[in-house]
């Protein structure tokens, strides 16, 4: 009887819902600036879990910050101006701080006039809401564990005045812009203030007892690194010099810090740096160690300490790690050295000539002294030879990297540093990396590391995208490198990991997870005897046996947690034991989709603590959370529903868990659970005001269909906001690759960079279909046809989709598939393709200008899913290129391609447009000048979004065609057209 009553109520609600939804007014593009929402990404719980702070307000406008108690309805609201703000609580959750900015309109005005928008810092006492405000603040920091202090650094825009030199020393120094500004130390309890002048950088240690700070004053007077003991308030200059200091870096425990000192040396163009290490604190005193790195007997010849890497202490406080880079000598110094060398050579030649004349010998290679060579021009003088040099690039077939890659990476190469170590007790320098092994990953004990040398395979890798490298184990003490694994296939690896005791290194090779003994270099295959596959069955790129994923070692150094395509496994490090923690989830198509790193201080997974994992049901696309209880061997599903749930967050001093939950038509709300099973769940932030409910969508449905290749696949059908059962709706098919795992994700109304915003279309009476695409190698375009066309037919069969009014849109890879699909099927009434590649043969050897690499590697190992170049695979390239089937196009096409597209070359859009135009096919191409692969300028985003909807409204809803589509706009009339449409 009770069941029937519940069913009756449900049916009544279902009957009423369409009318409620139909009455909701659709969102218009002009409404987006005023659309209200909570910035959930920046929402912050207090360390004790008793407060939550979050920013909310319109998309474009003035915002508010709300402080709300998590266990009652107490709220405090603060106006913070037109910019969002990070929120910080002090350690004992007695105070909260945040920025207040000028109003939104003022910020925009300042941006146009390139003026700064100064920020205020507000500090609020959570005990009584009393507050204090500081103007013109640049940054601030609470004193970590101590939590009684806050350091506030103010903006400094003044140019320091010149300082007079002492009498008899010479001319006054030139004016220099110091980096220092006032730093205020504010005691949150006593409200006393202490000002430190000319501070350029500062940092509290973990306990909050010590403040390390750098003075950078006018004329470098009094510059140095200082230490304040906050228990006494006494400061001490640990190291003074007329130099600049930077990059304070405390160790994790707060017992030592390192930094750099910058000096000038007339021998070198760039500054030279000294490494400073500080430890063994005694009140406001400490031991200070310095290493200059200019002695070529200590450091690699021609190199010096680099400021492009932050120095840091080893865990045992015996070593400081830092970076070195080449030192470039001044031209004057080079010329002086050349002159000295020349004089030395001439002196030697004169001696030889004199000796030869004594013995009566002649040497035809000796010549008389010529005129003295002129000194080369200084750097600030024009060099006639430079004016005569050609401006060109040489592309050589044996270049390991294309010239375009080299140009794009020029700044990175200039800032490249070789990881090095200074062993303090021995005063010994060790270079760990080099030009071949460019990075070293340290083991937990920091006695060894690993590095990968890709240079033997770099040429081929840059061509095909199939990446290999030789793995070396590096001795941190000596810098000695031992080859551990030759030609390791890198495309399949999801991160190499050291074990907690540093004795093992986890890697993936030939379809199995394997363990390298870092001492003996012996290898153990961990998964060969486990009755499952660790090859990712959902990855259909041209990669040989890609890995599923690993979550790393357990803290007790006994196990590693691995996942197959569905289940989670606890595997012993000897490979003899494997426990399936998820109880054969593969039989239910349940997937362990991620690990929730809850304990920020833990470097490894501690099985003595409750651990959380994310779950996905492949068949239903439901998402949720599973718990691996402390000391347990079984995952327990706590939540699984038609939702998307965020990462769980645990405050430092609380056992409560915070997370967001969203649905396809419900914005993310913030929840708190006070128990480990998530049963005592409270919604603490509602992100869905009544005025906006029902405006986005009536929900989503998951469709199951069979592709033309015989694969069972899924598609998500998002319902229009005004959905009424039994009625059919115009539909936009949006494509990329696999999209249905995000079935329950909310779509925020906004101006999109790619033109399409799902929320705007479902709000305005469209259904939106997003199908999965499964690819076959050498047939990317035909695979899209095999998957998308059956998905559209399945959607039409539901009765929700109006089969006579279906359109398709995609951007980038989705744009390519859109451009191809309309050459193979007529089921779409209109199409919009953003930045599509259209000719696989011409595109194959063009440059991906955003990185400088060629597209060849993308075609052969990434999205292209082709196995060779077109010369050995001509039919596949032609078969899957839209341009070669262009005569079959009957669908009107809106094409976007920007002239500065650095991903898909602009010529691809031009080629397709001109081909369609030559055949008198209905096509309009939009080009936003100066824009890259996606739109960045807000005015362009809005313009494209509005035009796309006008285009679809005309073709699918029968609305009048906009003039730019119906008859085009003459170039001379374009300014007037754009002015009339200005939003």
TrEMBL record:
Q: Which keywords are on file for this protein? A: Hydrolase, Signal
Q: Does the keyword Nucleus apply?
A: no
Specify the superkingdom.
Bacteria
Pfam families, alphabetically? Peptidase_S9
Instruction: Return the annotated region ranges for Disordered.
Output: 362-387
- According to the entry, every stretch annotated as the Peptidase S9 prolyl oligopeptidase catalytic domain falls at 791-958
User: Is the Zinc-finger keyword given for this protein?
Assistant: no
The record's annotation in InterPro entries points to: AB_hydrolase_fold (IPR029058), Peptidase_S9_cat (IPR001375)
As given in the record, the signal peptide range reads 1-20
Protein name, as recorded: Prolyl oligopeptidase family serine peptidase
> Which species is the source of this protein?
Sphingobacterium thermophilum
State the organism's lineage.
Bacteria, Pseudomonadati, Bacteroidota, Sphingobacteriia, Sphingobacteriales
